[in-house]
Hints:
Elements: H1 3-12, H2 20-47, H3 53-70, H4 74-89, H5 95-115, H6 121-145, H7 151-183
Helix pairs in contact: 2-3, 2-4, 3-4, 3-5, 3-7, 4-5, 5-6, 6-7
Amino acid sequence: MSNSSITQQSGSKRKTRFDTRALVGAVILGIVFVLVQQVAHRIDAMINPANTIIGGITWAMFTGLTVLLFKQPAGLITVEVQALVAVASGLSPLSVFFIPANGVASIGYTLVTWKCSMEKWSHHLLAQIVSNVLGNIVVGIGLYVVLALPIPVILISSTITTIVGVIGGTVLTKKVYDSIRRSGILK
């Protein structure tokens, strides 16, 4: 095994990163995340305002990618930039709930990456399940508090968004992450 591959393997096992590259990368990815979510939520609103299908998939992918690429606290920086801009722009009446939802989802994804190598599809699936369930529980609370939706409606909406986010997020995150790693852009 070459020295560079040993360094790369040991570097990928780091749990946190506080270097400038990770922190600046997180802010830039957060801005891209904002733009994608702004468009995705508007498309979702046209298709079916009760569910966040496209927004849920892109949210799941960006939440996973930022943790995989930049670790923590960069993962939190990216998702909270998105959440704060959502609040400031009035993206959704639930935007205030995106702040804790994004935070717990990012931390949940991180906890899985600390235990799993993230080399297998099952690792990405597990991380997305944890992340999406945690995030959608918080958004479900927002649906109840802000929109006063009945609990059965919240459960159906949250379940659909979670399932779509888990499936789409797993596929996109793994594909994009593997492509970025193979490209060598992170070296």
